[in-house]
């Protein structure tokens, strides 16, 4: 199970009076990532209830059936009246960068005045300008920041978060960031999966010596993170101005050797031949804003999840990924916030889902599948999270809306009333 998972609740929680329950149960019982028309199937039950016991879903379905089966324990159960609202699996935000210290307001204004993300990065802004704050910060300070962001995400219905390091870029400050994430995860009732992103950019002290920096990632950061069980995945920003495909391969080889999973930021600004990385079976390719036809077809046949991050396209005024073509070709598409101070300072999955609908022509049902079960698969948690079925983790979001399409319709205003995180009820 994931690093930093909070203790599952020992009690019982019953959600009653649910107007619309989205179970996301697969109609034929498959536990694979959802593709093509499967992404439309939300497993809707009207007038429903959900019973959670000891952190797991015990029963979910029509309220009349659930209520009839549980008279015996009534008094020990914490009951929450959903007031005819909608309940769905808690969102799985499978791509975030919360271990930073300050927002990047200067970059923000420079972009408004016409500079591009890459130009700002070349001039010393961008990721490199976030390093000093993290290097100077204590692990406690980073942990407090991460916890604040996790709580903010929860307010929008997120119950599982992937959290990356990547703003320290020395062995010491990357481990400190991962420790900060672990410490925050222990204080949060949701689930956190940690990722080492030592290969975010080449820090200035290694300017012109990128391969030596890759050695540091491979020989120090990855072994340390694996030994101390501080990360489950290794990520690389494989992009012009960051790391090449060859360097990404080297880093992935080390990650696999150390027993860690792989994932990569790819094709955000420039296309890359993804067939080279296929042998590593990455859990996810993220961004994919500029895919070529042949890469799109290759992706459709792979197990690797295509994680799309419209928040970054919005904030950088970039083109959006071709979600429609990816889904229609058969790729398993997930959505995530990419929460970070440079390209996507949002913690809201509903906002991202709304962008996916209006800017990428995903349907609300596809956006919901992408933000729940396919996000869970992007973290290799498809068996535990992302649907509401007996035996799965009791991670739920309760929204004050009647129809699931409203989630993507009312953009920028949150209506998440409560969450259940590993069986524990939090009223917002
Ligand atoms: O996913 N592309 C690389 N990483 C982040 C940006 C991080 C930053 O600018 O601070 C992203 O967009
Ligand atoms: Fe990112």
Summarize the structure.
This protein has 428 residues and is of the alpha/beta class. The protein has 15 helices and 16 strands.
Q: What does the model show?
A:
The protein is globular. It has helices spanning 63-68, 105-112, 117-122, 131-136, 139-155, 171-187, 210-227, 245-257, 293-300, 310-316, 323-329, 349-360, 364-371, 373-378, 406-409; strands at 12-22, 44-53, 56-62, 77-81, 86-89, 91-96, 158-164, 191-199, 233-237, 261-266, 284-287, 305-308, 333-335, 396-399, 416-421, 424-427. The longest helix is centred in the middle third of the chain and has 18 residues, at 210-227. It is of the alpha/beta class. Strand 15 (416-421) and strand 16 form a beta hairpin. Fe (iii) ion (FE) is lined by residues 95, 97, 265, 338, 340.
Number of helices: 15
In terms of DSSP E residues, the strand content is 15-25%
Number of strands: 16
Structural class, by secondary structure, is: alpha/beta
The general outline is: globular
Ligand names: N-(iminomethyl)-L-glutamic acid, fe (iii) ion
Helix content, binned percent:
25-40%
Uncertain residue segments: none
> What does the largest sheet look like?
8 strands, mixed
């Amino acid at each position: 199970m994931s690093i930093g998972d909070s203790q599952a609740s020992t009690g019982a929680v019953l959600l009653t009076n649910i107007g619309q329950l989205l179970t996301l149960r697969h109609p034929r019982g498959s536990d694979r990532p959802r593709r093509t028309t499967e992404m439309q199937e939300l497993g809707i039950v009207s007038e429903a209830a959900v019973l959670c016991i000891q952190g797991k879903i015990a029963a979910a379905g029509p309220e009349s059936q659930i209520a009839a089966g549980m008279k015996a324990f009534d008094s020990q159960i914490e009951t929450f009246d959903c007031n005819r609202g909608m309940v769905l699996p808690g969102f799985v935000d499978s791509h975030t960068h919360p271990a930073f210290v300050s927002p990047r307001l200067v970059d923000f204004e420079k972009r408004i005045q016409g500079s591009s993300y890459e130009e700002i990065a070349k001039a010393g802004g961008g990721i490199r300008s976030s390093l000093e704050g993290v290097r100077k910060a204590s692990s406690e300070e980073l942990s407090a920041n991460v916890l604040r962001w996790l709580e903010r995400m929860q307010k929008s219905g997120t119950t599982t978060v992937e959290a990356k390091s990547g703003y320290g870029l020395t062995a010491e400050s990357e481990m400190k960031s991962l420790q900060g994430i672990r410490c925050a995860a222990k204080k949060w009732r949701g689930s956190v999966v940690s990722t080492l992103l030592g290969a975010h950019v080449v820090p200035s002290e290694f300017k012109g010596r990128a391969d030596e920096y890759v050695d540091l990632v491979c020989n120090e950061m990855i072994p340390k993170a694996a030994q101390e069980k501080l990360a489950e995945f290794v990520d690389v920003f494989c992009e012009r101005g960051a790391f090449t495909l060859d360097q990404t391969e080297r880093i992935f080889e080390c990650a696999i050797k150390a027993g860690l999973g792989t994932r990569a930021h790819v094709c955000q600004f420039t296309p890359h031949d993804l067939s080279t990385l296929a042998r590593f079976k990455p859990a996810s390719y993220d961004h994919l804003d500029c895919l070529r036809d042949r890469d799109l077809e290759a992706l459709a046949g792979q197990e690797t999840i295509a994680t799309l991050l419209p928040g970054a396209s919005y904030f950088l005024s970039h083109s959006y990924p071709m979600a429609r073509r990816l889904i229609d070709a058969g790729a398993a598409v997930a959505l995530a916030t990419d929460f970070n101070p440079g390209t996507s300072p949002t913690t809201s999955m509903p906002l991202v889902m709304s962008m996916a609908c209006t800017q990428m022509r995903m349907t609300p049902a596809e956006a919901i599948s992408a933000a729940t079960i396919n996000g869970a698969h992007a973290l290799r948690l498809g068996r535990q999270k992302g649907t509401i079925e007996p035996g799965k983790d009791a991670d739920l979001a309760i929204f004050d809306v009647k129809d699931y399409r409203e989630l993507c319709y009312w953009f920028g205003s949150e209506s998440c009333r409560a969450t259940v995180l590993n069986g524990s009820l939090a009223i917002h």
